[in-house]
Amino acid sequence: MIQLVSETSDFTKDNVQDKIKGWITANEIGFGKVMQPFRLALVGSLQGPDVFQISASIGKEETIKRLKALLNKQ
Fold first, then answer.
1. Most buried of 46, 52, 58, 72 (most Cβ within 10 A)?
2. pTM score of the predicted model
3. How many structural domains are present in the chain?
4. What's the DSSP call for residue 10?
């Protein structure tokens, strides 16, 4: 997931959404298995605003930082 985010050059809501949803579909992974931890990493809760909008708003570097922080907690 971190690599996928890192490889997204035009870091907009739509591009992040397309990349991640495309990766989930291509790898036949359940959306909940990816999206819930992604949201948890970004906002610290399983509820909140659109996760892709949050990601675009905080930017690529902060998104990566928060994903790494979640991985280090486990």
1. 52
2. 0.88
3. 1
4. S
AA letter at 30: G
Cα gap 29→62, rounded to integer Å: 25
Give the closest residue to 54 by CA, choosing from 37, 30, 62, 6. 62
Two tokens, residue 47: 């509820």
Write out the H or E segment, with its range, that includes residue 73: helix 60-73
Integer Cα distance of 64 and 29 in angstroms:
21
**pLDDT tens by residue, 22-50:** 999 999 999 989 999 999 999 999 888 99
Q: Which domain holds residue 15?
A: 2-73
* CATH number, domain containing residue 46: 1.10.10.350
Contact 45, 39 (CB under 8 A): yes
